[in-house]
Design the sequence.
């Protein structure tokens, strides 16, 4: 069996040497490491070994598995670097060239989605509101029931304006890049007469580990309704109408209980993933948009916390209300079938030109 493992290693090394694309690298991974792959095939024989032999072969096989995994990830990195180096060369721009009229440019997929959302909400009687991207701590946190030292501040950690400016300011008045569009809820409730029925599209920022769903700058659409006799049924019905219009008729919604300091009760709402058609897989690979679960979180929501209302001078006994925060980038990715919302920020003309 040791021989077989050695042969497998040789074979792997010779094949990876000739692998020249991410697609082929994935095929190689499948061929060697997956359940139906060559390594597993060899390991089926392990049950016939003596306990002593097993003690040796087991760790050896594991070593080989880790070796193959590392080689594949190294190669993947290398291929990616080569790809970007080539792209840089191919896509160099000569600013002295005449601009061809057919390449005039058009809206970015996120703007297209945001505009579409605005249109849908305007047709449902909402007003579009705006707020500053550089916010004060009080509106981004305190007035949303997230006081200083509240653990939820970690979840919404963000980029603060330089110490030289902020150090001079009192707690609550310090400036930061807003982590969500929710401060505009506060601004509007403090400013407007009731009833309120607004949407707030806008750019937000987070101190975030980036992946297919997370980027440190992205777009949200906040949605706030405050009035008499607003019910959960209104919320659910409106949301379903919007999602079906935006994505596709068969969109399923899933409500999960959650915690937001400024809503009570709170929920996170997922939609069935359009990228993998709710299967969790794209071709034979795990769907990275939904982490192979079939569901993508698109919204945080629910009834605004009474304390938030009272702090904004609204009688929480008399009025009911709900609020949502939608992830426009994820909606755009779902709508246009783009497997990672991170791609929207990579200035890839080839991607953007398709929409
Ligand atoms: N502001 C929340 C976030 O960014 C989302 C949210 C908005 C939740 C409105 C509830 C109500 O995560």
Sequence:
């Amino acid at each position: 069996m040791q021989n077989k493992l050695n042969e497998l290693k040789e074979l792997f090394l010779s094949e990876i040497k000739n692998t020249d694309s991410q697609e082929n690298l994935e095929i190689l991974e499948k061929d060697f490491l997956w359940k139906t792959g060559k390594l597993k095939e060899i390991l089926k024989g392990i049950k016939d070994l003596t306990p002593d032999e097993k003690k040796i072969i087991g760790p050896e096989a594991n070593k080989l598995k880790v070796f193959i995994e590392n080689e594949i990830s190294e190669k993947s990195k290398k291929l990616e670097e080569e790809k970007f180096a080539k792209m840089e060369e191919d896509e160099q721009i000569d600013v002295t060239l005449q601009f061809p009229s057919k390449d005039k440019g058009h809206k970015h997929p996120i703007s297209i989605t945001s505009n579409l959302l605005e249109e849908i909400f305007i047709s449902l009687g909402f007003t579009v509101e705006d707020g500053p991207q550089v916010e004060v701590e009080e509106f981004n946190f305190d007035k949303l029931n997230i006081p200083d030292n509240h653990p939820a501040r970690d979840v919404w950690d963000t980029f603060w304006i330089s110490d030289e400016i902020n150090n001079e300011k009192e707690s609550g008045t310090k400036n930061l890049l807003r982590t969500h569009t929710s401060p505009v809820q506060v601004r509007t409730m403090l400013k407007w007469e009731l009833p309120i029925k607004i949407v707030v599209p806008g750019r937000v920022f987070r101190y975030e580990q980036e992946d297919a769903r997370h980027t440190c700058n992205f777009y949200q659409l906040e949605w706030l309704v405050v009035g008499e006799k607003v019910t959960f049924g209104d919320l659910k019905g409106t949301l379903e109408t919007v999602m079906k219009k935006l994505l596709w008729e068969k969109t399923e919604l899933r409500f999960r209980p959650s915690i937001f300091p400024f809503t009570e009760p709170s929920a996170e709402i997922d939609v069935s993933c359009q990228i993998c058609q709710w299967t969790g897989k794209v071709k034979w690979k795990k769907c990275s948009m939904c982490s192979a679960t079939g569901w993508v979180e698109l919204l945080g929501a629910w009834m605004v916390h009474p304390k938030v209302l009272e702090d904004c001078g609204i009688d929480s006994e008399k009025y009911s209300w709900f609020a949502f925060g939608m992830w426009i980038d994820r909606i755009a990715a779902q709508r246009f079938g783009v497997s990672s919302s991170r791609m929207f920020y990579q200035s890839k003309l080839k991607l953007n030109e398709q929409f």
Summary: The chain has two domains: 2-91, 109-352. Residues 141 and 316 are 20 Å apart (CA to CA).
